[in-house]
Amino acid sequence: MSASAVFVLDVKGKVLICRNYRGDIDMSVIDKFMPLLMEKEEEGVVTPIIQHGDNTFFYIKYNNLYLVSLTKKNANVAMVFTFLHKIVQVFCEYFKELEEESIRDNFVIIYELLDELMDFGFPQTTDSKILQEYITQEGHKLEVAPRPPMAVTNAVSWRSEGVSANGNVLRSEIVGAVKMRVYLSGMPELRLGLNDKVLFESTGRGKSKSVELEDVKFHQCVRLSRFENDRTISFIPPDGEFELMSYRLNTHVKPLIWVESVIERHAHSRVEYMIKAKSQFKRRSTANNVEIVIPVPMDADSPKFKTTSGSCKYAPDQNAVVWTIKSFPGGKEYLMRAHFGLPSVASEESEGRPPIHVRFEIPYFTVSGIQVRYLKIIEKSGYQALPWVRYITQNGDYQLRTQ
User: Fold this and answer.
1) Number of folded domains that form the chain
2) Which CATH number does the domain housing residue 17 bear?
3) N or C: at which end does the chain have fewer Cβ atoms within 10 angstroms?
């Protein structure tokens, strides 16, 4: 095992780009890396491995960047450092030089590379010559996209990315998947129709509501040649549950639940939070099981809460307040106030200001606008089956910076 997540930081410890491969860690733990590193340097003990609780940081420094691997598992140390140096090698071959500017200028292709370099914490395709055959710096439309070389498997990976904000939205994209649960006898062929923009334009329906899918990956059961020829998604499905396809849209999306925070610190005595959450989707939809996680100082105590909706609890193991709202209708706005005592005389600013995390799901709602137009079952005996479609939107890597 290599890594749960990989980060690229600037010289001050700010995250430039990151990839969560396993989903088994709290990504905000990276905010502890730079203070821990500075502490080690002040003690005169500089090591490439830093332990913090049950999290382990492995890092290398290259130019003005830190490449950090984070894991909770008992990782193969040699593999981790080999992989970090391999990332440097691949990026240098793509961008000539690896530095903060080249990271900022090429973040889209870097995410593509990170997705291919590692899969679920295990190194995958790390040969830059193979990668350059199908991840290029030239633009390609989906219908003329280069075919992956035979050296690369057709495995489908899941991505967990989303929106970060610091006053404004910095990066926004939609990551989705079509999942199926099949209970059919025999060897039926299925054909799935989506509101695919390329298909609509080629068949004279360009003005109809459609979606331009990008970075599409199919399950190995899909006939790729058929899709390339006429955009038909044709397949003989495996039995049970599987992921038919995943896609990514580089589309600006305003955060579906926007959170604003006002934090008042009273030196060495108390800290007060006023958190406002607003649902930015239509009234006919409702977000369920909303969790807003607000970081608080490590030495905070004596919590007091007041909310206009939902409930709050102090989670000292996370150094955070968790505000839970079971049902959050569209177009609504709720407030939460929290008060903590601060017994410590240490500088509160030394911990930095970690982001607020938001988790939720919205049933019967698609942010991308993708629609299943039909699902046809082609089988010689002509037996009857009942297709059923459910749409759902879930949060991804969704963080909002505190002011």
Assistant:
1) 3
2) 3.30.450.60
3) C
Contact of 210 with 242, CB cutoff 8 Å: no
Domain shared by 60 and 173, yes or no = no
> What CATH number is given to the structural domain containing 339?
2.60.40.1170
Contact at 8 Å (CB) between 279 and 262?
no
Going from the C-alpha of 215 to that of each of 171, 231, 364, the distances in angstroms are 17, 15, 24
Both 25 and 114 in one domain: the answer is yes
DSSP for 204-256, please give it.
T-TTS--B--EEEEE-TTB-HHHHHHH--EEE-PPSEEEEEEEEEE------S
Say yes or no: 376 and 232 in one domain: yes
Last residue of a domain, one of 90, 106, 139: 139
Of 338, 362, 368, 355, the residue nearest 290 (C-alpha): 362
Whether the model clears a pTM of 0.90, i.e. scores above it, the answer is no
Query: Contact at 8 Å (CB) between 345 and 19?
Result: no
**For residue 150, is it within any domain?**
no
Do 9 and 55 lie in one domain? The reply is: yes
Q: Which domain holds residue 305?
A: 257-364
Nearest by Cα to 157 from 220, 211, 103: 220
Quick one: CA dihedral 346, 292, 326, 278, positive or negative?
positive
Question: pLDDT tens per residue, the chain (403 residues)?
Answer: 568 899 999 988 899 999 898 888 888 899 999 999 988 888 888 889 998 888 899 999 998 899 999 998 888 888 899 999 999 999 988 888 888 888 888 888 888 898 888 888 788 887 777 787 777 765 444 444 455 554 444 333 322 333 444 455 656 778 889 999 988 888 889 999 888 888 887 777 777 788 888 788 999 899 998 888 888 899 999 888 899 999 888 777 778 999 888 888 877 788 899 999 999 998 999 999 999 999 988 888 888 999 999 999 999 888 899 999 999 999 999 999 999 988 765 544 555 567 888 999 998 888 888 888 888 888 777 777 788 888 888 887 667 766 5
The residues that bridge with 258 in the sheet, in sequence order, are 278
